[in-house]
Amino acid sequence: MRSEPFDAIVVGGGLVGAAIAWGLQRQGLATVLLDEGDTAFRASRGNFGLVWVQSKGLGAPWYQRWTRASAAEWPALAAELGARTGEDLGLRQPGGVHLCLSDREMADREARMARMRQEAGNQPYEYRMIAAPELRQMLPGLGPEVVGASWTPYDGHANPLRLLHALHTAFAGAGGTYVPEARVGEGQAAPRDFAVTAGGRRFAAPRIVLAAGLGNADLAPRFGLSAPVRPQRGQVLVTERAAEVLPMPTTTIRQTQEGSLMLGDSMEEVGFDIRQTPDVMRQIAGRAVRCFPWIGRLAIVRAWSALRVMAPDGLPVYDESARFPGAFTANCHSGVTLAGAHARLLAPMIAAGRLDPMLDRFTAGRFDVRAAS
Ligand SMILES: Cc1cc2nc3c(=O)[nH]c(=O)nc-3n(C[C@H](O)[C@H](O)[C@H](O)COP(=O)(O)OP(=O)(O)OC[C@H]3O[C@@H](n4cnc5c(N)ncnc54)[C@H](O)[C@@H]3O)c2cc1C
3-class DSSP state for residue 309? Predict the structure, then answer.
């Protein structure tokens, strides 16, 4: 079979792969984006839509810096994708709160935020612990059980499906080649010389990026890489549209552009099981109603579960293969938040052929796993 030549192959058309593929194409690299399709697990179609900073990277300030950098890139990403596709990504970054329902929760949160600031070192880390009376002014309709919250100005949210659609549309509009129903199994790897067969076609390029979400665990070793990611289930509920207005997102409750409330999202270690369970749905709804009693009057109109792409320590994994330079992998459980960084910071590094030292701490080598030879 004749190979179709490209400058870069990206495997996986979810938020991570699409952001990188768009970023590469934007850099002028002829890029092909291969996606398995609906038979795969796809976190990008089932997430909560937060562009969230405040709790990311406790004990790992390099992750906090990367997350902050991404949140800072988001307005430019949204503006550029909006201009190219006409898509309103619904980005709002008004700051966000983590609500606490007991004094104990509030004390734990305060300790956590103080540590975040300390670990931020020279970079300012602005936050406040806000007690209930002031919080009630900020968030009308707050329940009597809420004792306070942590607040940072860095948090926000967006419409994740529009983001995914806009990334694909901008990629294709800039001349990128998207191939759906194209599962990559085997591939041929040599330094800066890769070939894969997918969807009955063969593609060759000097660079390959493995961004196949949970599929990366199997795929990475074939390219001298390691991606020890596991599934972690999250369940989400959506209410009918509300007359009330929630002015900023919380860690587990956000109001969409259209007015619905999204209530989330559990963290369950149940393997590749995407069933929904009444007990977890009840817990999610129960906590939301304790935070904002008026939510109890709204009907739940949709609910789903999806699987996060989780590394053993919960941090992203970015790597370039030592054995096959030109092969990269990208894995994370915050693909909405990190879309700004993936499209506008990581893709230029991959285009230049080298990851920046700021990403050194994200190597899979930190798990003491040996990349397959
Ligand atoms: C319940 C829940 C809530 C979340 N909330 C947030 C949030 O609020 N904010 C946030 O930032 N993040 C959130 N996330 C995480 C976010 O959704 C993920 O980080 C992101 O979607 C991961 O994108 P991905 O492209 O790596 O993976 P996926 O979306 O899983 O995409 C992987 C793609 O690779 C393809 N694929 C797999 N194997 C192959 C193969 N062999 N060949 C070709 N293609 C292949 C699949 O078809 C799939 O389309 C949440 C996730 C969940 C589950």
Answer: strand
The reported pLDDT for the residue numbered 98 is: 98
The amino acid at residue 281 is M
- Contact assessment for residue 231 and residue 32, using Cβ atoms and an 8 Å cutoff: no
CA of 130 to the centre of ligand 1 (A): 34
212 CB-near residues (< 8 Å, 6+ apart): 11, 12, 14, 17, 36, 40, 184, 219
Q: Is the CB of 33 under 6 A from ligand 1?
A: no
What atom in ligand 1 is closest to the CA of residue 50?
A: 8
- Å from CA of 278 to ligand 1 middle: 24
By DSSP bridging, strand 193-198 and strand 187-190 are antiparallel
Atom of ligand 1 nearest to the CA of 219: 41
Other CB atoms within 10 Å distance of the CB of residue 98: 23
Closest approach atom of ligand 1 to CA 12: 34
CA of 106 to the centre of ligand 1 (A): 32
N- to C-terminal Cα distance for the chain?
27
Q: Which structure tokens are listed for 104?
A: 């104990």
pLDDT higher than threshold 50 for residue 272: yes
Which mutation among 20, 44, 63, 209 tests ligand 1's pocket best, with the greatest number of atoms within 8 A of CB?
Answer: 44
Report pLDDT digits (tens) over 64-74: 999 999 999 99
Domains along the chain with CATH numbers: 3-50+161-229+313-367 (3.50.50.60), 96-153 (no CATH), 230-310 (3.30.9.10)
275-290 per-position pLDDT tens digit: 999 999 999 999 999 9
* Phi (first) and psi of residue 87, to 5 degrees: -90, 130
